[in-house]
Amino acid sequence: EVQLVESGGGLVQPGGSLRLSCAASGFAFSIAAMSWVRQAPGQGRELVATITDGHRTLYGDSVKGRFTISRDNAKSTVYLQMDDLKSEDTAVYYCHDLKWDSWGQGTQVTVSS
Fold first, then answer.
1. H or E stretch at 77
2. pLDDT by residue (tens digit) across 40-67?
3. 103 near 94, Cβ under 8 Å?
4. pLDDT tens across 5-49, in order?
5. Are 81 and 70 in contact (CB under 8 A)?
6. CB contact at 8 A, 89 and 22
7. How far is CA 34 from each of CA 1, 11, 17, 83, rounded to the nearest angstrom?
8. What counts of helices (H) and strands (E) characterise the chain?
């Protein structure tokens, strides 16, 4: 069974940092491109970042220079380091496996003073 489990969300002040993790199981993680996608209240899903099986990365314009995606194939885990967080980063963040189109349950990130 394919499973993606996100963790690391929470409440943080503007300018702060969070690190999200997504633990994968049930598929060949090392050959799958992985993405983080977010959805703010009342809005559609937005691609945040993607990392290929070859560790190439792609970022949405709104997070370039602030967020970093990485992966550890030995742990079947993909990470999202989020720095200099802004109120507009508030959303539910989802992990997405592009090869088999699997989704995690999401983790809430709230940026507020």
1. strand 77-82
2. 999 999 999 999 999 999 999 999 999 9
3. yes
4. 999 999 999 999 999 999 999 888 989 999 999 999 999 999 999
5. yes
6. no
7. 17, 25, 21, 20
8. 0, 11
